[in-house]
Amino acid sequence: MAEQDTVQQIKERRSAPRVTTTLRAKAFPGAADCVVADFNERGARVRFDQNGPTGGRLILVIWSTGLAFEAQVCWRAHGDVGVRFVRRCDFRSRVPSDFWAARSVWLESRPKFRRRMLKNATFTVTPRAMARVDHRRAGSAAAAAARESE
User: For the segment 135-144, what is each residue's pLDDT rounded down to a tens digit?
Assistant: First the structure.
């Protein structure tokens, strides 16, 4: 009963509800593999299989998207770490110097596509995709006709 009361008090202290996820991430320093168990815009609960980075601050990188967060560790328990986000950035654009080491590891793991490779690639077009294109063209043609009648 006392444990339930503690969980309820923690939930009431949060200013925004958490969303449950299974996003793969890495925590720096050390590039430790982890999973974001739940998060909101202010913080997250991160689950480590092995020991995560020690210290009060870490950089958490969502590996699939390249979103990175500088985070302050709030609590640790049984391989889980609760963090509060201090700052965020997107690795697909310019990043502050604090994030450079993590970004270089992230960039090395991304597939490399050269412009020539993309130009020579073949793409299959499905009937559903063509229907969407035709629908957009019909909408723009109707809009052009409406402008002409004005």
Answer: 555 555 555 5
DSSP 8-state code for residue 80 = E
Query: How is domain 2-113 classified at the CATH fold level?
Result: Thrombin, subunit H (2.40.10)
Residue 110 CA to its chain's centroid (Å): 15
Tokens of 39: 């998060």
- The alpha carbon of 74 is separated from its chain's Cα centroid by a whole number of angstroms, namely 20
CA–CA separation, 70 vs 20, rounded Å? 20
Are residues 38 and 46 in contact, defined by beta-carbon separation less than 8 angstroms? no
pTM over 0.70: no
Place of tokens 């593999």: 33
Tell me the C-alpha distance between 66 and 92, whole Å.
Answer: 7
Give the chain's mean pLDDT: 79
Kindly give, in sequence order, each residue whose CB lies less than 8 Å from that of residue 95, ignoring residues fewer than 6 positions away: 68, 89, 103
Domain ranges within the chain, ordered by starting residue: 2-113, 117-149
